[in-house]
Amino acid sequence: MSRAIHFISGLPRSGSTLLAALLRQNPRFHAGMSSPVAGMFNNLLGEMSGRNEFSVFIDDAQRERVLRGLFDNYYGPDIDAQVIFDTNRMWCSKLPVLRTLFPHGRIIACVRHVSWVMDSFERLTRRNVFQPSSIFSYRPGTTVYSRTEGLAGGDGLVGHAYNALKEAYFGEHAAQHLMLVQYETLTNDPARVLAAIYAFLDEPAFEHDFENISYDATEFDLRAGTPGLHAVRPRVEAICNETILPPDVFRRYENDAFWRDPNINLRRVQVV
To answer: pTM for the full model?
Structure first.
């Protein structure tokens, strides 16, 4: 691409939509909620693999061109931005191939204590008591225990993203291509977070407005049966709540914030 391409990834319910809403204030930037590019990316990889009998006609150079062309065509000339941020939780598991496709690309991974990620999902569920959510396959007969267990599984919304994050964090390319943004820092000190991101991306500084944030994904959230899933408050602020999770559920995940332990930050990944 003639434009810079970067990625927003990490854990769900950890500020990625808020971060995108802030970044898009810069007229040079394009950013939004999770896009369909990652899904198409995976499908293309699969269709160009040995499971397709015609893969004998496809070499790695062609695969690389096709995958790079996906971004070039999805973010076509109708998007007037010099820097593109594509958002998806899957990108952390794709760091080696993204590094090959976009050597100057960076991943900004949003993170949050997993107990509070679970708490946030539970709040959404209880707020929308008349609408079973796509997050839980529209099943109305779940409990807080089955919901959190499903989210935490290896293929669950939280578990898969968590494992992908660890894969990137401990991977050999992490130091140069990965930055972690903690939800707590983003909501308490957004100016510090944005300054660190601009420095990481080697982009000129921009004055952001943390008191007037605009973002609307109401239609998408309604179709997903989860109103408020991508809601962003008009101003950045930290909201202090007591957890609504049972104590045993909250304790189950409270020690999972591995990024807070500098002793295991083997790649010296920047954590803001």
So the answer is: 0.93
